[in-house]
């Protein structure tokens, strides 16, 4: 083998061995002290979010439809959750805030005005003040929370949240509101808890609606049965028991009128019957032909009056019975009168027509 052949064989062998050793023919590994364009490596770890606010004081939440203890509990939960957001460097303790408010004679009073927030913020030496107001109206809650800058004398963040559901879910809502106020993504566990509370609230609402329906049906049934036996005793009494005073007067007047006419008809019938019996006895005892003819004519007239009185008695008795039965049926079917103001029997107002989408003048007269 000549020299050139040996050199070629050695080069081929060296190139073939490079992949085995992990090197590349066209790669270059700089020494450890060599810097590529001055770049530094970044560890593959999650970075903590930078705090956005310095010192913050949370004033006791104000509100209506709630007692002071409930508002204080919600204020505490809000403060604890706000601290978990890591968006604030320092939060003044509730004890310190209350001491300052107590010194100023403001403890227990809402501090929602700008001047109040500035005064308290300067006394506490904080950069921001958190103010909150919670309104509860028939189970509908409105949360208003804002972050007030003492230095800028202006609100930098404000949030409003509406809630209706299980009262136990209010704490979850107030904790979510703390994250929302400082523009942080709330924890997944807190979001899942909100979903659970919403499902619980829906089920509670369904159960309450069903219980209310059953209770209303029971009250309606009891009211109808009470009206039924009362109207059986006296027409109109059942309607009066249900609050239908106009109907009660009509049924009572109709029943009394039919009864009065029936009694008068019976009195006329009884009088005619007695006159006929007397005339018939005189007719049998008389022997004079002229007197007999006169008594016979009188007897026929009295008998006709008796039949007329008897027909009227039957008619008014039938009418009275029909009124009595109809009054019983009406008392049971009509049911209680809906709760309406007593002074709305006659009036006039303006309503919005959903079909025409325009205001309309309405004149109403309550017939019952």
Gist of the model:
This protein is of the alpha/beta class and 368 residues long. The protein has helices at 3-21, 68-84, 94-103, 114-124, 170-181, 188-233, 237-241, 245-285, 289-334; strands at residues 53-58, 62-64, 88-91, 128-137, 140-149, 154-164, 346-353, 358-365. Residues 17-50 and 340-344 have low confidence and may be disordered.
Would you give an account of this structure?
- The chain is an alpha/beta fold and 368 residues long.
- Among the domains are: 53-186, Rossmann fold; 237-334.
- The chain is built from nine helices and eight strands.
- The protein has helices at 3-21, 68-84, 94-103, 114-124, 170-181, 188-233, 237-241, 245-285, 289-334; strands at residues 53-58, 62-64, 88-91, 128-137, 140-149, 154-164, 346-353, 358-365.
- The strands form two sheets. Strands 1, 2, 3, 4, 5 and 6 form a six-stranded mixed beta sheet that branches. The chain has a two-stranded antiparallel sheet with strand order 7-8.
- Strand 4 and strand 5 (140-149) form a beta hairpin.
- Helix 2 (68-84) packs across helix 5 and helix 8 (245-285) packs antiparallel against helix 9 (289-334).
- The protein is rod-shaped.
- It starts with a helix and ends with a strand.
Helix coverage percent: 55-70%
CATH topology of the domain at 53-186: Rossmann fold
Structural class: alpha/beta
Write the element-wise H/E pattern from the N-terminal end onward.
HEEHEHHEEEHHHHHEE
The CATH architecture name of the domain at 53-186 reads: 3-Layer(aba) Sandwich
Poorly predicted residue ranges: 17-50, 340-344
CATH class placement of the domain at 53-186: Alpha Beta
- Largest sheet features: 6 strands, mixed
Radius of gyration: 48 Å
- Residues in β-strands, percent: 15-25%
Average pLDDT over all residues: 77
The number of strands is 8
Whole-Å distance between the termini?
129 Å
- Taken from the alpha-carbon principal axes, the silhouette is rod-shaped
CATH homologous superfamily title of the domain at 53-186: TolB, N-terminal domain
Number of helices: 9
